[in-house]
Amino acid sequence: MAVSAGAPSVGDRGGLEEGEVAADDAGKDGEQDQERDEVQYRNSGVPLEEYELTRGDHRRQKQSEEISEWDRRQTEEDDAKCRADPERAERRRQAFKNVAKLMQSFKKADHEIMRWRVRLYCGHIIETQAHYTYTDPLSAGSYGRRCSECGEDRQTIVAFEPIGLRGEPPEPTEPKRSSPPKKPTRADLERRVKTLEKENERLRAKLSG
After folding, report:
1. 3-state DSSP call for residue 73?
2. What is the mean pLDDT of the chain?
3. Backbone angles phi, psi at 3, to 5 degrees
C-alpha cells in the first residue's frame, strides 16, 4: 500500500498557507520518500534545523494552546468534584486503571515502531515514535506534545523526518519439513504378510464352524 509524498493538507495541517508548498512541489520544500516494505515515509520541512515557521504553524499552535487551556479547566473541575465525592473519585481511578491495562495490551514489538525526528513549534528538535504503518507522526495523532528540552506543553510538530525502526525485524523462519515416511524393510513386509495370513485363517475357521 504505497503512499505518495506530500505534507498533510487536511485536518492536522489546516490547508496550505503562505510559505507552505503542495505535494506536487515536494522537491521545493525538501520532502522525500523513504520506503519500508510498501509504506513510504514522508519528510516535511527538512532540514529541520533550518525550518522557518509559517502562518499555518502559528495558527495551529494557538489552537493547541486553547485546547490545552480547556483541558486544564476541565481537569480542575473534575478534581474538585472527585474531592467532594469519593465514589466518583474511585470510578475515575478505576477508569484510568482500565485504560492503562488496555494500552499495555497494545504494546508493539520494536520492529513495528518507527522513530521520528520532529521539530516543535518552540524550535527544539526531539525524537518521537509511532507505529510503522503511519507515513508520518501527524497521521499517528502526534500533533502536540511536551518539549523535553524546554518543558513547554502542547508544542505542535512543524517539521519531521523518519529515523528508522526501533529494532530490526526478525528473520523469517522456514516451516519445519516433516520427515518422509520410513520405507518398510523386507522383514517388515514378511511379518505383515504372516499376520494377514493368520487373520485370514482365523476368519475362515470362524465362518466354517
Report:
1. helix
2. 79
3. -125, 130
